[in-house]
Write a structure and sequence with these properties.
The chain has about 140 residues and is an all-alpha fold. The chain has 5 helices and no strands. Helix 1 runs antiparallel to helix 2.
Length: about 140
């Protein structure tokens, strides 16, 4: 997807996210944060020339990052991807009952409001970083 399309989509996700009450709509907040973060991550990867606009990541690790891409990931992009990875894991656990052990039985954990607080901080940091990269 073109960078401009990623930015347009990110704006739509941000608008939708802003309408949610994180304490009440925490599952939707995690899902929307995941979509927003993935969209911004792809915009950054394209802008920095790490991936072509014809290729998008679905997650930080899917499809697997090629050696060629990995060699181009700078520390700041790696940090953004680490933030995104937290959101991915939180979403998997709390929205899909998939923990670190994918072979374990799926059981939703007791909700901890700190998760959405952490998610909000991380998605905000991703947004700030992505905005700075887009204007480079």
């Amino acid at each position: 997807m073109r960078i401009s399309a990623h930015i347009q989509l990110a704006n739509s996700w941000q608008s939708a996210l802003a309408k949610l009450d994180p304490e009440v709509d925490y599952l939707a907040y995690l899902e929307f944060s995941m979509m927003l973060g993935t969209t911004l991550m792809n915009a950054v990867l394209h802008k920095r020339g790490i991936s072509d606009e014809s290729f998008d990541q679905n997650h930080t690790n899917r499809p697997p990052i090629s050696d060629e891409m990995a060699a181009q990931i700078t520390p700041d992009v790696a940090e953004m991807m680490s933030l995104m990875s937290y959101i991915e894991r939180a979403r998997n656990l709390h929205c899909r009952a998939i923990g670190e052990d994918r072979g374990a039985p799926r059981v939703l954990p007791k909700w901890d409001p700190k998760v959405v607080t952490e998610c909000a901080a991380k998605i905000e940091a991703i947004q700030v970083f992505a905005e700075s990269v887009i204007v480079e």
